[in-house]
């Protein structure tokens, strides 16, 4: 038989709340709505950091889209160069990043920020970035890195990282209202990345409260041993946190004290300059 056998429950990814299939079905009465396109996008979104390789059965279970439709979506993505397969599991290819790159590289925020980040990176000789909150992750929308300052975390525009253990993530979480923050803390999966990672709800809530009080944050080796960064908020005209800016460095090059005493004032000035350019 050509039909795949159901996988054991322990190997099937859990369905997400309000499945894509249900949302798609609710729109099928619209004559201009393309069901096949919606299903293709849902298949792409089924892949996550901890589920980079999925079977047809797993994607179907996660999205509630029929296996036959999932198979056609994956076949199309492979033909267009967005996905690959080893015969059983499927994974996305880097070309997928081009879907979002045109947007993030052309928005006024990213365009305005890039020269400021370039100048900041040149001045401090470290990587400087800007990110926004996308779900439970931060999305890099602008970045300037010094070639000789490469670190093991390979980041570029379009990269995503968990919000809870990154400096820009802490800034963005601190910018949420209390209800939104409670929702995040209730659903977030706080995995231990290093021995320094704040991975409890109480610990993270306390850290975010401290960020709200002082207006900036230094995260020391919580995402990866050796990686230290400091971040500040970028606020809109109404004072709401729009994005976060940071300077990332290796612990062997810059101490926590130097990040705070030397780099923080420069980073705050860059944030003020960017805010002025955007909203004055």
UniProtKB/TrEMBL annotation:
Name any Gene Ontology BP term: 3,4-dihydroxybenzoate metabolic process
Translocase in keyword set: no
Keyword Acyltransferase in annotation = no
Assigned keywords, A-Z? DNA-binding, Transcription, Transcription regulation
PROSITE patterns with a match to the protein in the record: HTH_ICLR, ICLR_ED
Q: Name one GO molecular function term.
A: DNA-binding transcription factor activity
IclR-ED domain mapped to chain residues: 95-280
Q: Where is the HTH iclR-type domain?
A: 34-94
What name does the UniProt record give this protein? IclR family transcriptional regulator
